[in-house]
Design goal:
heterodimer, A: 238 residues, alpha/beta, Rossmann fold, two-stranded antiparallel ribbon, 30% helix, globular, B: 302 residues, alpha+beta, 2 domains, 4-stranded antiparallel β-sheet, rod-shaped
Chain lengths: 238, 302
Amino acid sequence: MRYGRGPEVLRDLSFDLPRGSFQFLTGPSGAGKTSLLKLIYLAMKPSSGSISFFGQDTATLPREDLPLLRRRVGVVFQEFKLLNHLSVFDNAALPLRVTGRKRSEYAEDVAELLAWVGLGDRMDANPATLSGGEQQRVAIARAVVAQPEILIADEPTGNVDSDMAMRLLRLFVELNKLGTTIVFATHDLQLVRLLDAPVMTLSNGHLHIRPPRSQRLRPEPLESEVYVEDGPAEDEHE
Amino acid sequence: MSDRQIPPPPKGGAGALLPPDAGRDRPLFLVAAILVFLACIAALGARGAIVQAQAWTSDLETSLTIQIRPVEGRDTEADARQAAEIATEIEGIAAATAHGRDHAEALIAPWLGQDNLPDDLPLPLLVDVELNPGSAPPVEALQSALDEAGLAASVDDHARWAGAVKRAAGLARTLGISLLALLMGAAAAVIAFAARASLAARIDVIDALHLSGAEDGFIAQLFQRRFFMLGLKSGTAGALIAVIVSLLVSWGDTPADMLFFLPRWSMNPFELLMLGLAPLLSGATAALSARLAVATDLRQRW
């Protein structure tokens, strides 16, 4: 995959996302995590190769079929992408609203979801007035409100403190237990270590997939050189 | 989910998905209102010219004029009266009125002035002939009858004037419709440009909508609604200004020779309908233009 006529950002990638799985996606800044996620959540087309998504090749997918596929995917963006002219409630309800559903049909569900993520008393608030953690939870509520089959989170803990990061991770684990496939992009190794989940590591446009800890034959260290941003190298190994 | 009490959803309707374009729509509103105003004036002008021309040609086509040339030794006024009598006997003619020398002097007074004519100056006299409704002008029959009576008379069916007036009315109508089409095209282009600019300015919103599963049609409809309302409001403003201006023109002291070229405002249903439709037409043009522009732009994205 490349942007315009620029160099290839991703190449020779081949992987599956099993239904109901929880996958970490890691790699240093600029490794192509966001580009890979954009391919998965159908914001971009691959410049070569193919992506089979729910049995459909996205490279040849007609444009008019995109919305139906996108509705099966929830996305938590690194920079939230909340609409500041809408209330917290309207932001969270956006995926339901764009399908043409009436407010009366989804209002109770959205209120319940916002209460679940701890924003029951901020439904009328403007997102710009919320803290980073609260904005992140609005973004998560919006991503899951339509009960997507895949939830993609791009650095969902990148803007919050470690306590909030833990709470958000638990939220994703809960959603995974409810059957949602999760792709959790982060370069926070402490979070990665907390779960027994496969880890996809991107480096220089290539993907290395490490199985869950419980399925590994021998302990396999994470590649410390790609995590130097997070702290001393000795802290990066399992 | 937890068993804690679920708070009720906020009251009121859902917020507008497109953020308000605070202030950015104002110049567009002004431009659209001006275009609608010009379109209304063009339409009223064309309509006025057509109505005027119809009235003139109707008068000309349902009448004839007999000109009695003065002949030495003959009583021209008596000839005129005789010509009128002859005319009334021709089939298709309802009435004929002979005018005397006073009438002829009054006709040339604007050029030669009052009381400046010598009494012995020979003047042609006129006979107005009114035709039966729907009758073809019996020009040849009348001319023959007048010739047989030995009168120095010629019959004018006003064909030359009526043709010129009709041509002028047709030209005014074509100009009016062309101007209307041009102004509508300009309005559509301006709105399309503004819709594209608005789309580009709100690409963050469009991305959020797209990635939330919105179809292109859904997004295009948001812009369509916004620009319909803008077109409706600017159309109303433009039409109202056109009404005021045309009323002022109608009430003003308009020289007779300018009447043909100025819109003649009258509170008849056609003009009211035309002005009433202007805002709707403006809104529809804006909505269609915005929808097409946005849909085209969205198709170029994936």
